[in-house]
Task: inverse folding
């Protein structure tokens, strides 16, 4: 069986990921839990080691050589993220610990200042808990109202209902670009344009899109875009939030502390310029620096090549899974990326996960931090296989054989 699709030489790419070269329970590891976190290429691991071995210093304030090197590399990542998102300026790129912090930052600053009693926030039925709970917390504090775009049987957003929810009362629309549970790609340009037509701002949760889809925040005209480094082959504990400059300037700071100030007196503190106003305290320097290695890695292969490769894996996996008796795919949207979620009649997803792991195959099972979505489909959870640049057709065959064994054992 071919291990390489037309666009990617996976054997060459796999050699860049040391973790893949191991056996689990006596079998070669198949890693299909990429929507939870991706594995790291050697370039990212090397960047972390290099920083700690040669450049470790606190940034921005030091004038010694190590501090200058660390600051230069930290800020080089900001420029790489700017280009990665198509932003106009590095002032619009704020480092965070990941998507969750990016969303919470917007809820705590933009939300607290610009969303009040009776105002409405629209999210969708496809959201991860991290794009639900911060808005619920804000609504509870402010007396604002949360509205939800329903999900169709195919796992797409009901755009007619969305249009009907929009009114001048809506201050913010917060939806994901790609659903982590189903892989649906949402029509975010349409969502943004329609929200802007009623004067609402838009936050896009890019946790699942940023490694697959080319992002151009200016062409999208999006107000906020958040993503996580660990889902784009970078380290954990780092991510970025894009925000339009005029909005970021109008927002109060998120946390108070060092770096985010211009001048402090006991009477009054003035705040630093963008983006530092939102980066209080010593940041996650090593992981920010290594994030650039991840972005460079993606750029070298080319996102369009990565997407084409993953699309081929998804199409092949979908076709083969559908031939398994009693298996139902949850999420059959026209536009999908990299994720296939399924249930098998009479078998709990947890049991599937454990028995696949026994065969060296790592998948995710459960609710995928999308409990309302699972409820929408009347299921406790799914088994989810999610693909990345280093996965192969041969591994999809292993999944299918593995599932056939699971069914034989349990039925
Ligand atoms: C769609 C989506 N949003 C947000 C998050 C949260 O990302 P993080 O845990 O990196 O902050 C995830 C993580 O799985 C996700 O898939």
Result:
């Amino acid at each position: 069986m071919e291990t390489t699709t037309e666009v990617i030489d996976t054997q060459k790419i796999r050699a860049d990921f040391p973790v893949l070269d191991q056996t689990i329970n006596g079998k070669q590891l198949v890693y299909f839990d990429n929507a939870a976190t991706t594995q790291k290429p050697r370039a990212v691991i090397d960047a972390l080691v290099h920083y700690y071995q040669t450049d470790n210093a606190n940034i921005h304030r030091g004038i010694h050589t190590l501090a200058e090197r660390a600051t230069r590399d930290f800020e080089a990542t900001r420029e790489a993220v700017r280009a990665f998102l198509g932003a106009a300026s590095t002032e619009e790129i704020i480092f965070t610990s990941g998507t969750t912090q990016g969303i919470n930052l917007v809820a705590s600053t933009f939300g607290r200042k610009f969303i009040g009693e009776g105002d409405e926030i629209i999210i969708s039925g496809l959201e991860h808990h991290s794009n639900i709970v911060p808005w619920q917390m804000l609504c509870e504090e402010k007396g604002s109202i949360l509205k939800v775009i329903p999900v169709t049987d195919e796992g797409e957003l009901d755009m007619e209902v969305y249009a009907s929810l929009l009114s001048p009362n809506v201050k913010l629309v917060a939806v994901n670009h790609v659903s982590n549970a189903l892989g649906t790609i949402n029509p975010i340009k349409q969502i943004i344009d329609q929200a802007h037509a009623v004067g609402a701002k838009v936050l896009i949760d890019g946790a699942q899109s940023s490694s697959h889809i080319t992002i151009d925040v200016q062409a999208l005209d999006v107000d906020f875009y958040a993503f996580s480094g660990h889902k784009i082959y970078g380290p954990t504990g780092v991510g970025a939030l894009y925000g339009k400059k005029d909005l970021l300037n109008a927002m109060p700071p998120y946390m108070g502390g060092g770096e985010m100030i211009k001048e402090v007196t006991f009477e009054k503190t003035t705040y630093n310029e963008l983006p530092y106003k939102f980066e209080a305290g010593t940041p996650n320097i090593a992981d920010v620096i290594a994030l650039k290695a991840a972005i460079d890695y993606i750029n070298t292969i080319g996102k369009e090549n990565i997407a084409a490769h993953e699309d081929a894996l998804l199409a092949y996996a979908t076709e083969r899974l559908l031939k398994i008796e009693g298996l139902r795919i949850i999420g059959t949207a026209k536009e999908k990326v990299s994720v296939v979620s399924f249930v098998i009649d009479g078998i709990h997803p947890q049991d599937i996960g454990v028995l696949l792991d026994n065969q060296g195959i790592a998948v995710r099972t459960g609710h995928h931090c999308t409990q309302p979505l699972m409820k929408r489909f009347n299921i406790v959870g799914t088994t989810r296989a999610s693909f990345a640049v280093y996965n192969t057709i041969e591994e999809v065959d292993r999944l299918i054989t593995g599932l056939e064994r699971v069914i034989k054992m349990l039925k």
The pocket of pyridoxal-5'-phosphate is lined by residues 98-100, 128, 130-131, 176, 180, 205, 207-208, 228 (CB under 6 Å). The mean pLDDT is 97. DSSP finds 14 helices and 17 strands in the chain. The two ends are 29 Å apart (CA to CA).
